[in-house]
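ingest -> validate -> predict -> emit
validate: passed (alphabet ok, no gaps, 317 aa)
predict: started
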Amino acid sequence: MLKNKRVTVTGGKGFLGRHLLQELAGYDCASVEVADLPEYDLTRLDDIRRMFSVTRPDIVIHLAAKVGGIGFNQEKPAELFYDNLIMGAQLLHEACLQKIEKFVALGTICAYPKFTPVPFREEDIWNGYPEETNAPYGLAKKMMLVQSQAYRNQYGFNSIFLLPVNLYGPGDNFDPASSHVIPALIRKCFDAIENHHDAIEVWGTGGATREFFYVEDAARAICMATDLYDKSEPVNIGAGFEISIRDLTALIARLCGFKGKINWNTTKPDGQPRRMLDTARARQEFGFIARTDLASGLAKTIEWYKKNITAVKAGNR
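emit:
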């Protein structure tokens, strides 16, 4: 599917996008173009139409999203809903009008109901309301699944919907205002070491569990699905394990060399109680199995942060 095709990646300058571009380099595409800010504001229909005119894609892989951690979700729920909804709806619609060969939509594990049985199976995605702190984001992204299936049914449009679990890895977002848990904890540990603090604060009770997916594995999964999967059913992509936030925090602190106390701020939310995906469909449909264990992935992420800490703090990475 990918060989000799013109591919456009929305959000290609972002964390996942940069790794996806590296992975696509091995697929003999005719071209790989990036559609991202500031050249294209994908909430604007005129910019989307200009993007299609300029890049002329055969395939669109839609990664672009407004996203952040629990605090960011609580602060900007309306923006998270509107921006993600309007990007996905307009991009997929215009892709259908342009008669492109394939549209790959990236959803989110936040689309699943708050109390989904573990491991999360794709069949359970409509069996309840998402966890409240990230429901606007999760529901906005899930509308692409509805649209994807509707356009396939009515127009025969080839679009697929992938559900990645929480990503992490080198080049992640380490901004305290919007980062997810792994980069946030890494930065807290190094800031505490640098400033000779003997404790760090972590939100919640530590009892919630999460699954974490190394970004290079995610890029490989997306390329494999783009190349080999052409069905309307959503597909989970992840590593297939879970770890409590308490155990994760202890592991990151040890790998960072932080030996101080961890204070749990239980006035702050835990988020969804548990998260872990059933990844059998990805294995069966296009042969994907994650390769990177958590400790190895964290070590690579921490090493990247150590090498780039000055640029990260200056806002240049």
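Residues 103 and 159 are 4 Å apart (CA to CA).
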